[in-house]
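Researcher: Next entry in the queue.
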Amino acid sequence: MMLSLVPLTYRYWPSGYAQIYVFLLLKGDDYKALLALAESKGYSRIVWCRDDDIADLEKISGVSVIEWKSDPDFSAFSNLAIQSNISCFIGREHRGRWLLHGGGDFEFEERGDQVWNKSISWFFFVSTEKVERQCRKDSFENTEFQECTFNMLGDWYVNEEVMTYPPQEYQYNQ
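Model: Structure for this entry, 174 residues:
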């Protein structure tokens, strides 16, 4: 029943976001705790999955953490993620906020000339302020860039980036 009412209660309802709403309802508090811990430990980027033998970690100082399995700061982070039954965390600090990677999409669209669209969604949590819906557009040569921020659910927001560019032929040197 709840999912049938959601399109009537939220202004912006792109396809494929139903799973994100449910995910944030179920795991939002766990991710808030991980975001706070990542920030308190001085990380600026974390790409980690429980069952992988690799991770990509970077501190605010710009230093990559190579020996992540023996890093005590990251051990506290990964233990909290495992206790919360979170299998992956992909996030980065950007403009003073921690953003969680929400997914990406790639589509081919015909608009007079053929174009490619690539979108990437990032989710962030704001507890102290309300973020107004905002969009900005920019272009460079034959590529258009649009970035929109809007409220997703409660104190969770989405920052969605869409790049539109014409198909190109790539040559690979062998």
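Model: Strands lie at 43-49, 55-59, 88-94, 97-111, 113-125, 134-140, 143-153, 156-165.
Researcher: Noted, moving on.
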